[in-house]
Amino acid sequence: MRILRPLDRYVFSEFWKIFIVTGLGFPLLLVVTDLTENIEKYLNRHISSRDLVLSYIYFIPDSMFMVLPAAVLFATVFSIGAFTRHAEVTAAKASGISFYRLILPIFVGAVFACGLDLVLGEISPITNSRRSALLQEDKAQVGTSRFNFAYSGEYGRVYKAFELRTDSGQMHWLQIERKGSGASYPTYLLTADTATYDARNAAYGSPWTLKRGDLNIITDTGPTFTISFASARDVHLTERPAEMMAKPPDPHNMRYKDITRFINAIERSGGDANVSRVERALKIAVPVTCIIIALFGAPLATSTQRGGSAYGIAVSLATTMIFLLMIQLTKAVGSKGVITPDLAAWIPGILFGMFGLVLLARVRT
């Protein structure tokens, strides 16, 4: 007995055609909306038409990431709805094919959509970075001076400085703090009156020279001691002045492994990583929602046909808006630590999945 029947291919192709149209249609709508809102800003930056077009090509992966679950919902509702209107569901049942078996290819398509969304989640940070460069976003935000700031660096270190100047490559009243535990990884606080950047020393791994400072080592069990220095180089201080001028990285524009490293660095420095934890969980939760939303949409499609296509569109749009609203709401709640950040990212999917199982159990097979 063949697993892939002609009926399976037919159901899968009908689902996939609607999915492709919807999956590309929503991002194109977002492109038009964004261009309408920001065209004057881009013209003032003298961005060429080629770079502008290319920037919106790079924008597509990020815009598709959040709307793919909605594309799965539309494809599920309208493909099954068409089967219902044309009595194909009734014919399949009369031939001994249950409703669950009929919609199996749709769930296969939802699994493919889930995999595609996982890939988009890893690609979009790269394309977003290239888009920002084309639109000159960094140049529009970065100046030559920064005062009284904190910067989260590698190895769980936090830099604090009274002043940073990119024109002279200097920092004044610098503090470098790293929180640790145990004798092999102690907490320390390094202070220096000035730090000067020299790109020629970057090849040797220590481009910054620190002047007139102290290194305070704080252990859990042993005594605390201080080492004073007139001049020193810190091999872990490798960031360029321009990098430290930039605002903290947006976790949404980081790949999964990069977010994990960023979270570890924040937590080692005693910071709040809830926002980053929610974003990391969403990189898995949103793609998996493609499968959950198919579970919800399949039984929904059998009931929306009572009001025709317009009713199906209204229900699909309303469901999409509710889903996106719930994502934003749970992100805010998880970011504030009201509930566990990882759980917050999965709440919309859990609720839709539970409701979908109830609807699916009530469908006549």
Largest sheet, if any? 6 strands, antiparallel
Secondary-structure content class = alpha+beta
SSE string: HHHHHHEEEEEEHHHHH
How far apart the termini lie comes to: 22 Å
Strand content: 15-25%
Calculate the mean pLDDT score and round it. Answer: 83
How are the strands of the largest sheet arranged?
1-2-3-4-5-6
Helix content: 55-70%
Radius of gyration from CA coordinates: 27 Å
Q: Please give the number of β-strands.
A: 6
Unreliable parts: none
Shape descriptor reads elongated
Number of helices in the DSSP assignment: 11
What does this structure look like?
The protein is of the alpha+beta class and 365 residues long. The chain has 2 domains: 6-138 and 275-362, no CATH class; 143-245, no CATH class. It is built from 11 helices and 6 strands. It has helices at 6-44, 49-85, 88-94, 99-102, 104-134, 137-141, 241-245, 256-268, 274-304, 308-335, 341-362; strands at 145-152, 157-165, 170-178, 187-197, 208-218, 225-233. A 6-stranded antiparallel beta sheet has the order 1-2-3-4-5-6. The protein starts with 5 loop residues before the first helix and ends with a helix.
